[in-house]
Amino acid sequence: MAQEVRGVIAPGKNEPVRLETILVPDPGPGEAVVQIQACGVCHTDLHYKQGGINDDFPFLLGHEASGVVESVGDGVTEVAPGDFVILNWRAVCGQCRACRRGRPQYCFDTHNARQKMTLKDGTELSPALGIGAFADKTLVAAGQCTKVDPEVSPAVAGLLGCGVMAGIGAAINTGNVGRGDSVAVIGCGGVGDAAVVGARLAGASRIIAVDIDDRKLETARSMGATDTVNSRTTDPVEAVRGLTGGFGADVVIDAVGRPETYQQAFYARDLAGTVVLVGVPTPDMTLELPLLDVFGRGGALKSSWYGDCLPSRDFPMLIDLHQQGRIDLGAFVTETIGIEDVEQAFARMQAGDVLRSVVTL
Q1: 72-120 pLDDT, tens digit each
Q2: Chain centroid, CA 101 distance in Å
């Protein structure tokens, strides 16, 4: 029997979010119902609200979440009721050409729950990134659940479900940052700061944080940046080159996802250096670069999907590192809020007042 729970929906483009009663069906084969304990307010949720992802309104927002498995459907072996899990938005299929090659982090056929959650009147909801976790409970594919140590704070654990994993993975998995490398990170929100943490964890010798907000630059420094550049007042390309002996950084990570920041990343890297795009562009954005410059600079231009992570491998590892004190995931949590405060959290996000607001239930 379907359960009635509270959920935050985006009813239409740029309309204020609403707290509604939603219906969560019993899990079918391969599915799980998860009781949500915490969910971060991610910029991707704001993109959904603004119509920047697609127009499949109404959306059930929230995806950066942790919670406890309440029930599972037939055939589920990955998790069991009572398990504390982090939700991910890329349950791998195990059958596609990437999975068969032993590279499931690049799975081409990731999936979500087959059944739909609905409003009381039967209107089907589109869960953000296949999760929809601004809710007391949500329905997901069982493969979207990664079991981790239940001793960790739910507010901390949930952040690995998207932004923190995306940033750390952009540095370590996609950028292959190595010991002694120089790294520049453009955009110092949650994802950018996580990239700073990842670069520090990988042993980078110089980590240059670039942003237009001095408050964010100071936070990035507290996360491990060795240098900061305010690109509102300083040419970031020249600044990065100046801090790297005139050459440019070995790895430059664009955590904004705009044509102008990508161009900055492209020209701020050393010859044969790597550019990593982890910021999410909108569908209308286009990029123009001289093809001769692309050829002449060599190196690699990479896009980082979810930090190229494999949740079953990376989530437990990062939780372990946090518990060992080697990384401080709690530093990303600016505030905890109630489920009714999501609209206000979006406003604080846009004003640059928070690194992460986390809904706790």
Answers
A1: 999 999 999 999 999 998 889 999 999 999 999 999 998 999 999 999 9
A2: 25
